Amino acid sequence: MSTAVFFHAHPDDEALLTAGTMAMLAHEGHRVVLVVATAGERGLAELPHGDELGRARMDELRVSAAALGCARVVRLGYGDSGLAIDGGVAEDRPDDAFIDADLEEAAQRLADVLKEEAADLITIYDPAGGYGHPDHVQVYRVGTRAAEIAGTPVVLEATVNRDLLLKGVRLAARFYPSLDVRSFERAYSPGEAITHRVNVRRFARAKRAAMAAHGTQTTGGDGDRTLGAMLKIPYPLYRMVFGTEWYVRRGLPPGTRLRHPFDNP
């Protein structure tokens, strides 16, 4: 069997983007390793920013990882960079913020894990970092370089099909006119760029359990957050909506449509 390393910026990112794939691979007998760059100690939550929130979110991450069948959880040890109101880099970020980490040093930390695990595959994010969070963009940069250093043969960019996302957002905007549709027009990846469409409906309960593990991220601010709203979706609809996970593997022929992370054209 093979080893897959899933590299994420903060606790809960794994539940949103790759949980079904992780559960599937673990079920198939592959070794699944979850690596996070930060503890997410500056995330929006009812707990104040800092070590207490970071410890709580790492505890949640371990519960999520157990639900998905992960063999190991690793934290690289960088500070959560936070997010400015305009979606850019926060000015009050900590000195050890992941976004400010030296690229080669951070990539080497991750490469050490890849080498130790003899990883066959690593997942990162797309170049835009999905919706543009600075730490997510840094995951792309660091993960790409780490794979080069370690010689990891398969690099998959975890993403969302933008075409389908925009259809859903435009429909939702009919009921919520304040929804900013334009903010999604450059998010994630267009359908034509996606190379892997992984059916994870069989593992929807594990994915839902992973989301539910991150209780600190279901509330905060003005009320329910995205994660909290997702968990309120009735299970049959949840299974349909979140039953596919998408990835981009660079260098494959245009129009490639694969169904498993380890598939090749």
Biggest sheet strand order reads 3-2-1-4-5-7-6
- CATH topology (level 3) name: Rossmann fold
Number of helices: 9
Strand residue percentage = 15-25%
The geometry reads as globular
Written as H for each helix and E for each strand, in order along the chain, the element string is EHHEHEHEHEHEHHHE
* Spatial separation of the terminal alpha carbons: 20 Å
Mean pLDDT over the residues: 92
Q: What portion of residues is helical?
A: 25-40%
What is the rounded Rg?
Answer: 17 Å
Instruction: Pick out the low-confidence regions.
Output: none
Q: Say which CATH homologous superfamily is assigned.
A: LmbE-like
Biggest sheet layout = 7 strands, mixed
How many domains, as an integer? 1
| DSSP strand count | 7
Structural class category: alpha/beta
CATH class: Alpha Beta
Describe this structure in words.
By secondary structure, this protein is α/β, with parallel strands linked by helices. It has one domain: 3-Layer(aba) Sandwich (Rossmann fold), CATH 3.40.50.10320. It has helices spanning about 15, 20-25, 50-70, 105-115, 135-150, 160-175, 205-215, 225-230, 235-240, and strands spanning about 5-10, 30-40, 70-80, 120-125, 155-160, 195-200, 245-250. Strand 4, helix 5 and strand 5 form a beta-alpha-beta unit.
